[in-house]
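Quick one:
INPUT:
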């Protein structure tokens, strides 16, 4: 049971005059109740926490969430359980299946509580930051290794496989996402997964990867050049590098994540290579693209201990693309701390 999560949920129940909060999002379930089963629901009321699931998970619940009460779905459906005990229930519309919602809505009235747990999850404890740091350190070690490993003539897949193998050998439990190795004109695809394309001399190569440590995600992007970088590549690279460092430098001075997006976006949009086509970054935590997504419309305050990425990019169709991404947070003193520390200077692999 995570005190911060439970407090946030019960505060919402109080404010909205609700009887219970139905948590359907798996990471929210883990965050609030420490329940890691891949099936079932967590229901938080003013003084109890229930886990509604089947017998496959009962023994695990006794270990993970000893204070929670088990509701056996073989004997009572979720909808019946809620209808018998509660009348007004918060739901998570971004994860609750429509069929479950329709069944529940017959017996209780519902209020949407999508961001309640996600906003609590944004603020990381020291222990969570430590796990996020461990993943970021693996990213840095993998980047060092892959720069030595890469040669003209390898396929993107061979490079991706080596990134994944090496990261796991350093203790990662899994990948944050399918590794991106995009070379040559493919580097202009913002999310170009690795293919059998052979990496050639002069190719710009975008490497975007991450690893999970104890459930917490990391995410790094570096763009390298095989052989000599052209003047245009150097110019675009320099602009992206500047945009990224501006994002990190300005983060302590802005009020909201939307403001941070405007700083980075404004810089790229004002160059001859604008507009900047995606968000400036995203939160990192129990999922890779965690709340908040850093875009102009986000009004969350950029307060201390929210771990997030800064990842501007410029993509020139049919030519090449450059993106640089680091994992950062503002500490209690108001200073930015980088979790990933690989150089952002242009590396030409010769
Ligand atoms: Mn990212």
């Amino acid at each position: 049971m995570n005190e911060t999560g439970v407090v946030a949920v019960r505060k919402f129940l109080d404010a909205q005059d609700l009887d219970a909060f139905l948590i359907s999002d798996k990471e929210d379930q883990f965050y609030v109740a420490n329940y890691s089963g891949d099936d079932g629901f967590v229901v938080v009321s003013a003084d109890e926490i229930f886990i509604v699931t089947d017998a496959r998970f009962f023994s695990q619940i006794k270990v993970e969430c000893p204070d929670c009460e088990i509701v056996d779905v073989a004997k009572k459906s979720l909808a019946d359980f809620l209808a018998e005990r509660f009348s007004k229930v918060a739901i998570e519309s971004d994860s609750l299946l429509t069929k479950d919602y329709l069944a529940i809505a017959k017996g209780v009235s519902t209020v949407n509580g999508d961001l309640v747990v996600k906003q609590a999850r944004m603020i990381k404890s020291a222990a969570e930051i430590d796990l996020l740091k461990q993943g970021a350190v693996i990213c840095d070690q993998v980047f060092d290794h892959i720069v030595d490993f890469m040669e003209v003539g390898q396929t993107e897949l061979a490079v991706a496989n080596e990134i994944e193998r090496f990261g796991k050998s350093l203790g990662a439990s899994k990948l944050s996402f399918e590794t991106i190795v995009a070379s040559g004109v493919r580097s202009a695809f913002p999310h170009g997964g690795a293919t059998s394309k052979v990496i050639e001399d002069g190719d710009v190569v975008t490497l975007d990867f991450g690893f999970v440590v104890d459930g917490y995600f990391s995410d790094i992007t570096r763009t390298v050049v095989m052989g000599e970088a052209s003047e245009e590549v150097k110019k675009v690279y320099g602009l992206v590098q500047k945009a990224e460092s501006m994002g990190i430098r300005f983060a302590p001075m802005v009020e909201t994540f939307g403001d941070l997006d405007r700083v980075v976006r404004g810089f790229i949009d004002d160059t001859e290579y604008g507009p900047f086509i995606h968000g400036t970054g995203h939160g990192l935590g129990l999922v890779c693209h965690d709340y908040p997504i850093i875009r102009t419309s986000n009004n969350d305050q950029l307060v201390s201990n929210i771990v997030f990425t800064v990842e501007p990019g410029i993509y020139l169709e049919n030519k090449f693309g450059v993106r640089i991404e680091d994992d950062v947070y503002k500490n209690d003193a108001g200073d930015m701390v980088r979790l990933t520390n690989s150089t952002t200077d242009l590396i030409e692999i010769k």
